[in-house]
Amino acid sequence: MRTDDPWYDDLASGWGDRYAPPACAASTTTAPRGGSAYGGDAQDVRDAQAGVYLAVQRSDAFQQVRRRYRRFVVPVTAAFLVWYLAYVVAATAAPELMARPVAGVFNVALAAGLAQFASTFLLTWAYVRHARLRRDELALELRWETQDMARARAAAPVAVPRSAWESGR
Fold first, then answer.
1. pLDDT tens across 97-153, in order?
2. Measured between alpha carbons, how far is 52 from 105 in angstroms, rounded to an integer?
3. Radius of gyration over alpha carbons of the chain, in Å?
4. Are 32 and 160 in contact (CB under 8 A)?
5. Phi, psi of 158, deg, nearest 5
6. Would you state the torsion angle of the CA atoms of residues 11, 15, 18, 23, taken in this order, to the nearest 10 degrees?
7. pTM for the full predicted model
């Protein structure tokens, strides 16, 4: 498995120029009048890039990454919202419970409030761990696949009808 990130160098991946293909996919063909060095105009390049991302989005690997993400995030988000709303409801509906001292002036409300912060940090740690163990490797492979497909499409000549060349498109 490749461990370096293909999108680390933003100029090499084409992020610097919004509609240009990746920098490493330069073509030696001459451009027709009104076209680009990639065999067509900026719209052709955008269409080729859109095709790459649609193909990746439809791939089984991408769907697996999305499933793994949803299987973690949806239940954890629901549990945290229930926990947060239980704290708010208890604070408004049961003030005598929340005012009950735990140790000195430290009461149930303060303990529950601090537990809110602790649970936020715990959930952040759990999310990062889940991403690292269950999604990052597959997502990195998808990045490489996307970059390779984008480079291949950018390097491939786009069929431009002869009439478009002659009309000066």
1. 999 999 989 999 999 999 999 999 999 999 999 999 998 888 888 888 888 888 887
2. 61
3. 26
4. yes
5. -90, 130
6. 40
7. 0.60
Whether 71 and 65 have beta carbons less than 8 Å apart is answered as no
Q: What is the 3 state secondary structure string of 74-132?
A: HHHHHHHHHHHHHHHHHHHHCHHHHCCEEECCEEHHHHHHHHHHHHHHHHHHHHHHHHH
The answer on pLDDT for 23 being more than 60 is no
Question: Which residue matches tokens 């229930």?
Answer: 82
- Looking from the CA of 112 toward its CB, the CA atoms found within 13 Å total 18
Measured on CA atoms in the order 50, 146, 65, 136, is the torsion positive or negative?
Answer: negative
